[in-house]
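Quick one from the shared queue. A colleague (R.T.) flagged Protein kinase domain-containing protein as missing a structural entry in our internal table.

Convert sequence to structure tokens.
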Amino acid sequence: MIEGDPRRLGDYWLAGRLGAGRRGVVYEAYGSDGRRVAVKVPHGDPALWRRLAGEAAVARGVAPYCTAGVVDADLDGPRPYIVSEYVAGPSLREAGRVLAGADLDRLAAAVATALTAIHDAGMVHRGLTPDTVLLGQEGPRVIDFGLVPAMEATLTSPRLVIGAPAYTAPEVFTGQEAGAAADVFAWGATVLYAATGADPFAAGSLGSIMHGVLSTDPCLDTLSGPLRGLVASALAKDPLARPAAADLLLALVRHDARVSPRSEDGSRASTESEDGPGAPPFTQALLEAGVPLTTEAVLGRRAGLVDALLAADAPLTTDFLLAAGGQMAAGLRTPCDDPALGVVAEEAYAALDPAEREIASAVFLRFCTVSADGRTGTRRARVPETRIVEAFDCLIARRGEEAELAHPALPYAWPRLRGWIEADRALHAARGNRARLILLAVLAALVFALLIAVVVTGTPV
């Protein structure tokens, strides 16, 4: 966090910067329920972003396959922000990995799955690059979809500053709006980047890159099998010649089902077959019926059935296809040491001896406040027990003789601290209730004594 960064937006407490670019700043944040999220605060005229409130609502309805879903947004306030799921893992570019074989197919399937879900919701990404594909622990995830003003996606607007020209479709360079076909072009360029580690159409100037996008075809020698043909078709200069994202996904998952069939226990077989496993007898009735198969009808049952239906060219619904793509993409998992604040705090707490743990709650409660509406805030306090402060050196910031929580979000990110705060608040409430009861008892005794005096003396009140 730097000077001027907000500490809180709506119900989300910001813990630190994840990144900053032309379009805005992205923060790690925690909701009031402790959920870890990513909050994007876009740059530019707030009035422009207010017009995207409807699109933000649509983005929240995108099917949750290979995307970091939008969970909340406030584009009407003076400081607009968008909240999405937090994905622990580097971007495809940051990871510095060159993928090949099955891993490259899984990456391609993951991005195609995300685009299919986005397009099925009636949206366009408009900004797909290796920077907007995160290699998460549960598989690749596409971020930052949809919420880009359309004026930023054409060359006819003076506001445009192209951030990733090598992934920009040719029609955008000629003044057309970026549509679903432009996303497919970016898919092809992103898959090629994953296979080579270099941006396609690379050149020394924007003009040279534009010329390459408009006039030349990149070398696809690093690609093989069906993926090479799919990328070539995705990079077609004519947007009408490109396949839809769903067609790309269908080709990828069907090839995966044919080449790597599952055994009866659900594990992948090691043998390869160009013709595929075909449809086993227990699927014949479903195939002959010709009824579109939904996720509910198939997934959750035998994994061999899923692959058999894909390999046998059975009629499929979009939700089944998305689930199959997500299942394929999950094979590309990226371990990442990116613990949440609560995990860091709990590890530091576990390292304390029993006596130190007894006083840790009192130390942290010095740094916390609770407002009348029940919201938890932070404050500075005199530096308490040195050993406790040292044990939590990355979570407690010293300010001379005082100290404070380094992250205002910590009370929401660390369940143990939330428990201490709630227990302390309950204790103060109980004490307050006892004090009120004693006061009421005293007042009642006084009133009773006064009434007795009136009865005995006959003096009117």
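The CA atoms of residues 367 and 379 lie 5 Å apart.
The chain has 18 helices and 13 strands.
Added to the table.
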